[in-house]
Amino acid sequence: MSKERLYLFDTTLRDGAQTTGIDFSVEEKRRIAAVLDDLGVDYVEGGFPGANATDTRLFENPPALETARLTAFGMVKRAGRSVSNDSGFQAVMAAKCPAICLVAKAWDYHVRVALGISNDENLAAIAQSVEAIVASGREAMIDCEHFFDGYKGNAAYALAVARTAYEAGARWVVLCDTNGGTLPHEFEHIIADVTKVVPGSHLGIHTHNDTENAVANSLMAVRAGVRQIQGTLNGIGERCGNANLTSIIPTLLLKSEFADRFETGVTPARLRQLTHASRILDEILNRNPDRHAPYVGESAFATKAGIHASAILKDPQTYEHVAPESVGNRRRLLVSKQGGKSSILAAMEKLGIPVDRDEAVLVRVLDEVKSREAAGYSYEAAEASFELLARRMLGEVPRYFSVDSFRVMVERRHNAKGDLVTVAEAIVKVSIDGADEPIWSVGEGNGPVNALDRALRKDLGRFQKHIENVELVDYKVRILTGGTEAVTRVLVESLDTVTGERWFTVGVSPNIIDASFEALLDAINYKLMKDAARVVEQAVGRAV
Questions:
Q1: What's the CA gap between 221 and 199, in Å, rounded?
Q2: Angle formed by the axes of helices 245-254 and 274-284, to 10°?
Q3: Total domains, the chain
Q4: Can you give the pTM of this predicted structure?
Q5: Which of 204, 445, 458, 531 is deepest in the core (most CB within 10 A)?
Q6: pLDDT digits over 170-203, tens only?
């Protein structure tokens, strides 16, 4: 029996960006889009081109996605204007992407009060906007804003909005619970009515979490007939958030009621990346992961000692609703080296590090990672540091140089113009492998970390040619423990301005400068390793 296809539409980069305190950069959007593409979602909504500089730049030079369709968000054209004479609509149409999703008013009250136009004018604007997208050769979608409230207020008009979009050529007509106030039991009869004018194969669902029902409402909508599900990674979004795809996706794949009937672009193999994807987003947002999040939280498969613990040792399936490995998580009670070895092996294989499953080095790497995580390290978003760690333990990374000492000074003074300025200066003493004398370098910057970075990269002797095009492009700090002896974790993003390659490294220390310097050292060593920089082996006097 063939399964029916469900389509996953991720709006983390657009709806998620409306979360209080979240402001994605272009490069952060690119990175998250790549993570979602690897996960297997069908659509990645990148943002609203023309509404802000970040989204406009993203769609001027869109990320290359292998499976997901990059989608631009916008509004239907304004009533009284042609599609060619609406600058906002044309900015969306100019986006380099294969799909466009427009928001339209589905509640007659909003048409009258917010838009100040007639119901018929609103329908005409929707039809003309969809037709323009279809004529451009792209996939058209309509988000029917406040659809469920509109249906309760004037069912005939809400249905007319959906039907108009569909008949104009919209691939997806998305029913939006915009204020998150609709309850699960209401979905079945409302969606059943909608399917009389739009087939379920063209219906989508977009729910908000204001009553803590966004996931339940989305699943209920699937049961009622919709075949596209919209949501965000980790459920981020304005107010209380959007439907959490991190919970919806594994439920669709692992719970028999859905898994026996439907399939998605997320395969079982890709589902094992879910926890990793969730943690990467949290690292980019510079926030602690929700320990109690379903499926992906650190405590999702944790059990304290006692009768349950002893039972889990004998038969874990009776106490866990799904296998933790299926979503890339792990059982915290057992913390088995065998299960941990599988995760380490998968990470090493992804990085192209050939290791036999039975090699004892896997256990050594696992133990080292656990020890470092206990000290505050996190390698979820610092794959370059993890690769360095693993390859060093395999004896594949030579010592290119060593830092004998460094010093940082920060001075606040009046400059020659009489302005009060703060100046940072760093001095680094580096011994280059095979060189006779150490190298002293001085760097100035707009802060101690910037000064250290400049000093370190100022002169690395014969290795200098490998790092001339390396720049520090992002820097995040997280305080892991409180008090005067707080442990600090620093995440550094580096860029090769010639190749465009980016990599992330991590450092941990009670001293923020020391943690930053560790991450900087990893960044440079990673570049030298990737370039296979040659090292002089003094003992035998030959280059390796």
A1: 13
A2: 180
A3: 3
A4: 0.76
A5: 204
A6: 999 999 999 999 999 999 999 999 999 999 999 9
